[in-house]
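for the writeup, i need someone to sanity check this before i put it in the appendix. the sequnce is what the collaborator sent (i think, or maybe the updated version? ugh). structure was predicted straight from it, no edits. if anything looks off just tell me and ill rerun, i have time this weekend
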Amino acid sequence: MVQALDGALLDRLVGSWLADQVTAGEETVAAVAGDGKTVRSAYRREGSQVHLLSATVRDAGAVIAQREVGAKTNEITELAPLLADVELAGVVATADALHTQWATAEHLVTNQKAHYVVTLKANQPTLYAACQRALSGPAQDFVPEHIAVGRGHGRTERRTTRVKALVGDEGIDFPHAAQVLRVRRDTGGLDGQRTGKEIAYCITSLDDALRWAARDHARPLAILGLTCLCRGPGVGPQISRSQVSDS
C-alpha cells in the first residue's frame, strides 16, 4: 500500500503540516536552509541513487518541503520548485556553494521577497577572489567582529566572523548583494592550544548580517548556513559576543 502512494504529494502534505506547526502561535521563521542529501541504500530501477533536496527551518529542525532530484538533473534547477509553496517573505534562505547562482539569488529576492546567505567557494573563482580581497586586512578594520566559543567532546572551537558592507568598488558582481562575510574556525584541545583552522566566505542580501545573526546566542553561525564549517556533535556556540578579535 505504501508503494501506491504519490511520494511527491505526500511530501507536500507533510511539509505543509510541519510548516503550520512551526508557525503555530504566531512564531516567526527566521531562516530556511536548502540542502541536498543522497539517500543511503535507496536506488532507482535503473541503478541511480535517490537524491533529495529539502528546505529546513533551522530554529525548529523541521523539514517543511522536500523534493526528489531526478537522475538527469541537479539541485540547482530544483531549488525554485522546492520553495515554490514555501512562504519566504522576510525570511533568510541559506544554502551551500552549489546554489551560489545568479538565477537563484534573483529568484529568492525578486520573486519570493526573501533574503539569502550563500557560501562562496572556488567554483566561482572571480567572485571568490573578490570576496577574499574585500575581507583581507587587520581585525581593527572590521570592528566589531563576532566571536562564538564552544567546548565539548574533548575539544574547543572558536568562530570569528567579520563582515564588510559592499559599496560598489570591490569588484563583487552578484544580484542584490549587500554584504560579504568571512568566518574563521579555530579548533583545538581543552588546553586551549589551537590544532586546526578553516576559513569560509559568504555573500548575503542582508544589509546588517552581523547584528541579525547575533540577536541571540543560538543564532550566530548555524543560521548563517556555513555548511562548509559544520561543527561536530556537542560543540556549538555556547558563548557569543561582539568584540575585536585578538588573533
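Residues 122 and 218 are 29 Å apart (CA to CA). The chain has a mean pLDDT of 78.
thx in advance!!
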